[in-house]
Design goal:
Blueprint lengths: L2 H12 L3 H4 L8 H4 L4 E5 L6 H5 L12 H13 L3 E9 L2 E8 L2 E8 L6 H7 L10 H17 L6 E9 L3 E9 L6 E7 L6 H7 L19 H17 L6 E10 L4 E9 L5 E9 L23 H17 L5 E10 L4 E10 L4 E8 L6 H5 L12 H13 L3 E10 L5 E10 L3 E10 L3 E13 L4 E10 L2 E10 L8 E11 L7 E17 L2 E16 L26 E2 L13 E2 L11 H9 L2 E13 L10 E15 L3 E13 L5 E12 L30 E2 L16 E12 L9 E13 L25 E2 L5 E12 L2 E12 L9 E8 L1
Parallel strand pairs: 1-3, 4-6, 7-9, 10-12, 13-15
Antiparallel strand pairs: 2-3, 5-6, 8-9, 11-12, 14-15, 16-17, 16-35, 17-18, 18-19, 19-20, 20-21, 21-22, 22-25, 23-24, 25-26, 26-27, 27-28, 28-30, 29-32, 30-31, 31-33, 33-34, 34-35
Length: 837
């Protein structure tokens, strides 16, 4: 029997456990038992031995315990300088054996066409002349693949290759197979009954792939965009009275057969609520809660709108702060009635915690100056913390369009009543270079080149220079805006421009304008703004010689603008005895042989005219979307007073109103009302150029300048003269816009049906001119300007095709006039559009 077996039997008989009786020693612990006199480093080439020794410093008495030895080993490996590190100890000698990582000589990318080398180099952590680490290379490989996936290429493959070089150097090559873009093949909705899938697709940013998707990127699958779409859908429902809505999930699935993603949003709508009552309660002594009622945008009987509640809360809290209640908090509460489908809204005004802003820290603005960001805050360091004002500042910063993202968070300050505001931003490019092109039935072909910058020099300034050249118009303009004049929220801007409108099939004359216009704008409320302006400009008429020639010949074919036969004969019953060459036949003179109308040639004779005018524009805007509105009201009221110096005087007033509202099945109704009045001041005559000129901008189905007073002096002889314009106009239009349900939403096509009505009348320009040779009074003693000035109501009905194309907004209209003036010019088809690229 072995000695070990005898020992085990003896221990068992004694009743003592083996674990407590026999110590099990796996390896000696020399570092804990022996002192370290020297540390020897082996295998190092680039790293100094003293650097390695610094990780293993003996404690008091020259001893290294096991814990210190382990910590030093881990720290040395954590430097990333070594592939391997081993330690051993013999007597008082600690040996540290290292295998250094290689040094990266160069980093290259192969196969990448869609993303540049510079962008990839900035994203990876491995750098030339840096230490090579396999773990870092693996992380960089995943990062490159993620960048491609963010751009919609989920089939990307990234393979790192390491090429050994002399002197412990390596070249790192990333071979990339980019693959094709992975588009979104379908966007579907489950659980939606109040709004169609077509309507909801208008709300979100993710679009289905179509034939024109190569011009955009919203059809590429992006998980962050899909997640943001969930919130957009939720906000849309909350805005339309669905207080219980939940966007339960956004399901995404890759379909190998379609080679794209299928995105499905699952929605639980709940029921729609209206506002049952609105009340106000205050727990602050001597504060009348009902005094804030005027700031409420929530009204009894209207759809419950969370956005209106939020804006009301913000306005009330800011107003309470202005009244001296800096810590007042407005908290809305809603009590739902499931039977009546109503929500009783209560605005509670309470005293909040006394918290002050210790600091406002800005992070991420490398180009934009700090003061450009800080001026968007209505509070500063030391002020009472007001969440409503912080939210408003965040919204303003986002609206600047200088940043990809803006987020304001809070951190605890140096004491319990102090907070630190952290403003995190990610800047984006704010400069634009565009080449625009377009064509319309009125202006012909037109091209424009422009350069603009929204954040000039990082100071928040706006500047733009543009040059346009077209078939019938051309021009140059320079614009500049300082949005904060003298650190006040006043936008000071100016425009300098030169424009030339050439004669065309609608006007016999051209107009050249050179002007300068400074302006000052400010917001009265978020939905109400006022702009003050001064305009100084010079206008002059240009006219072809054939249209200003008293000796035209009847065979002159260059008179394309409705010429009358030269020297229309009128036998007066005999010869003039004082004229030996009199044949008894007289012409009407230069006024009837093909020239432009009398007011046009009178403007030409007067030469360049200066206009100096003061004006303002009051704008009210509640549109839900400025590019593709479906709900809201837009009102522009303008007035201009000319006579502050210059050569002309008048008062011009114009009102333009558009109201959008959604009807059933994605049909949007647009009601457009407009009107204008030009008033004569003093004894000075109004110029023809200052009159309103109307056409399809008032009633579709008519040509440009095709409505209103017109020169008809020789209408009976086949001559129709220039449009003279009017001093009064009104217009009304009703339009229904609807998508084509059989086409993908992303194509951007909509149809429209409409009915227009309006009128222009009240010509008050020159009607006579005593220039020599103007009228042959012997042949026509009563000749002078004759014009039609009836206030006939023009009306039309029509259909339109609206295309939000990748080439810019395009619109085609075909309208048929129902009623018109005798001398109006009809143009049933009209087309216009343009783009920037």
């Amino acid at each position: 029997m072995s000695v070990l077996r005898v020992l085990l039997i003896a221990v068992a008989m004694s009743g003592v456990s083996i674990a407590s009786s026999i110590p099990v020693v796996l390896m000696p612990q020399p570092a804990a038992a022996q002192g370290v006199e020297t540390i020897v480093v082996e295998g190092n080439r680039r790293v100094e031995a003293e650097t390695v020794r610094s990780y293993f410093r003996p404690g008091p008495g020259g001893r290294l315990d096991q814990s210190a030895l382990d910590d030093g080993l881990k720290a040395l490996i954590g430097t990333g300088l070594f592939q391997d590190v081993k330690i051993s100890q013999s007597g008082g000698r600690l040996v540290v054996s290292v295998v250094e990582n290689a040094v990266i000589g160069r980093i290259a990318f192969e196969g990448n066409k869609k993303i540049k080398d510079e962008q990839l180099s900035a994203e990876i952590q491995s750098k030339p002349r840096g230490t090579f680490s396999r773990a870092l290379v693996q992380s960089d490989t995943l990062r490159i693949a993620e960048i491609y996936r963010r751009s919609g290429r989920y089939d990307v493959r990234v393979t790192p290759e390491i090429i050994e070089q002399p002197s412990s150097r390596v070249d790192l090559i990333f071979t990339i197979e980019e693959g094709a873009k992975t588009p979104v093949k379908s966007v579907e909705f489950i659980g939606n009954s109040a709004f169609s899938a077509s309507r909801l697709r208008d709300i979100i940013k993710t679009h289905e792939s179509n034939l024109l998707s190569f011009l955009g990127s919203n059809d590429i699958y992006d998980p962050d965009r899909v997640e943001a779409d969930r919130d957009l859908i939720r906000r849309f429902y909350l805005k339309n009275g669905f207080a219980d809505v939940q966007v339960v999930a956004a399901l995404t699935e890759y379909d190998p057969e379609k080679k794209g993603f299928l995105v499905t949003f699952k929605i639980e709508e709940g029921q729609q609520y209206r506002v049952g009552s609105v009340s106000f309660r205050s727990s602050i002594p001597n504060f009348d809660a009902n005094s804030l009622r005027v700031y409420s945008r929530v009204h009894v009987g209207s759809l419950y709108n969370v956005e209106s509640v939020e804006k009301s809360t913000e306005d009330m809290q800011i107003e309470a702060s202005r009244r001296g209640y800096a810590f007042a908090l407005v908290r809305p509460a809603g009590d739902r009635s499931f039977e009546a489908h109503t929500v009783s809204v209560v605005f509670n005004i309470d005293e909040g915690p006394r918290t002050y802003i210790e600091r406002i820290n800005l992070r991420g603005n490398t180009r934009t100056r700090d003061y450009v960001i800080r001026r968007e805050f209505d509070l500063s360091e030391g002020d009472a913390y007001n969440r409503a004002l912080v939210d408003r500042a965040e919204r303003r910063l986002k609206n600047l369009d200088y940043f990809k993202s803006v987020k304001i968070t809070t951190e605890p300050g140096s004491s319990s009543d102090r907070v630190i505001l952290i403003v995190d931003m990610e800047e984006k490019s704010t400069g634009d270079f565009s080449i625009s092109g377009g064509y319309s039935t009125t202006d012909g072909a037109l091209a424009e080149v422009s350069v603009s910058e929204r954040n000039l020099l990082g100071r928040g300034l706006y500047g733009k220079v543009s040059v346009s050249y077209g078939q019938y118009s051309r021009g140059i303009s320079l614009s500049f805006v300082e949005p904060y004049l003298l650190d006040y929220r006043l936008a000071l801007g100016f425009d300098t421009y030169w424009r030339q409108q050439l004669s065309n099939s609608y006007t016999s004359y051209g107009v050249t304008t050179l002007g300068f216009s400074p302006r000052l704008g400010f917001a009265l409320r978020e939905d109400l703004s006022l702009q003050l302006r001064y305009s100084l400009y010079q206008q002059s008429i240009t006219l072809a010689s054939a249209y200003n020639n008293c000796n035209n010949n009847a065979s002159n074919t260059s008179l394309a603008f409705n010429p009358t036969p030269a020297y229309i004969k009128s036998v007066l019953g005999g010869v003039d005895p004082t004229n030996s060459t009199d044949s008894g036949v007289y012409g009407y003179g230069c006024y009837g042989d093909g020239e432009s109308s009398l007011p046009v040639r009178r403007e030409l004779a007067n030469g360049a005219t200066w206009t100096s005018a003061l004006g303002y524009t009051l704008n009210y805007n509640t549109l839900d979307n400025t590019k593709n509105p479906t709900d809201g009201l837009l009102v522009d009221f303008k007035q201009d007073f000319a006579g502050v110096g210059g050569d002309v005087t008048y008062l011009k007033t114009a009102l333009d109103t558009k109201y959008y509202t959604s009807l059933v099945s994605d049909i949007v109704s647009v009601i457009h009302l407009q009107g204008g009045l030009l008033s004569k001041l003093g004894n000075q005559d109004l110029r023809m150029l200052d009159h309103f000129q109307m056409g399809p901008n008032l009633v579709r189905g008519f040509a440009s300048n095709g409505i209103g007073p017109r020169d008809i002096t020789y209408w009976s002889l086949g001559a129709s003269g220039d449009a003279l314009g009017g001093t009064k106009y009104w217009g009304a239009s009703m339009e229904l816009q609807m998508p084509f349900w059989f086409l993908p939403k992303e194509v951007g096509l909509k149809g429209a049906v409409y009915a227009d009505a309006g009128s222009l009348w009240g010509y008050q320009g020159p009607t006579s001119w005593s220039a020599t040779g103007e009228v042959n009074t012997k042949a026509c003693p009563t000749c002078g300007l004759q014009y039609d000035d009836g206030s006939t109501v023009r009306s039309s009905v029509g259909v339109g095709l609206i295309w939000a194309s990748p080439f810019g907004p395009l619109r085609f209209d075909y309208a048929v006039p129902l009623t018109k003036g005798k001398y109006d010019t009809v143009q049933e088809f009209r087309f216009g559009g343009g783009t920037s690229f």
